[in-house]
Amino acid sequence: MRIAVTGGKGGTGKSTVAINLAWELSKKFNVVLVDADVECPNDHILLSKKLENPREEYIFRPKFNYKKCIRCSLCVKNCSENAIVMFKEGYPFLMPTLCSGCKTCQLVCPSDAIEDDRKHIGNTYVTPVNERLTLVTGMLKEGEERSYPLVISTKKRANELNYDIIIYDTSAGTGNHVAAAIENAQLAVVVTEPTPLGLHDLKMILRLLEKEGKKGYAVINRYNIIDEMPELNGIEVLEKIPLSERILESYVKGRPLSSIFPDSEESRIFSEMANKLVGLIWQK
Ligand code: SF4
Ligand code: SF4
What we know:
Bound molecules: iron/sulfur cluster
Strand order of the largest sheet: 3-8-9-2-10-1-11-12-13
CATH topology of the largest domain: Rossmann fold
Number of strands: 13
Order of helices and strands: EHEHEEHEEHEEEHEHEHEEHHH
Number of helices: 10
Radius of gyration: 22 Å
CATH superfamily of the largest domain: P-loop containing nucleotide triphosphate hydrolases
């Protein structure tokens, strides 16, 4: 079972939902929680865990062997990022900040003149949280601009583990790194606040999910900060979470809610959310 937890902007409570959902599900299943918010991963902080088992992650970076190059310019013509430049009488050279590491140039080169000068883009970590919950984290190297390839590496590392359920905690927004994170999820939970801006973001993400052929369910966080909910126009709401001191305390202490307030109304909400999601996936 693969579930994505996503949201329109930072600070909506996406990671709080992801870690509490993972915690609840780990009471019955082997769960891998993937922190795919690689520019600013924080699930380990919310779980009071020090990241473990680091692994350096690399992407392909072309290096031209000018002894072999026949100056056919096929690499220039086939680079979708326009990262290779070649002047009339010269040889190809790379504009490194534009390169995505896709390897197309190497594949099209007819004379085997492009070697892999691999580039370190960041690290992934595998951190045990409890007997049935493992956290996989991607952390982008400082100054690295492209997060998409590291999201892919983080997901690959998670796939090396045994699990019944995998939860992808994506970064905020609708960029290609978010699309990469939700790519093989069966359904998505979209966390939002009950404000006009929150509703606008929610609709954008639901549209992205629809394009990807996935069903999205809204979770309205801090629903009680306004007197009247804006019109949701048929959007399916999975759960509504109140603004609550208990949730705030669990956040500050870096502990999942039900580990410190097992009998609270808020813990019941996360437990129900977990049960509903399992039911929805079984129905599929
Ligand atoms: S790896 Fe891809 S993006 Fe980079 S130079 Fe080659 S074709 Fe262009
Ligand atoms: S495709 Fe290969 S041979 Fe052709 S210009 Fe590029 S590096 Fe040189």
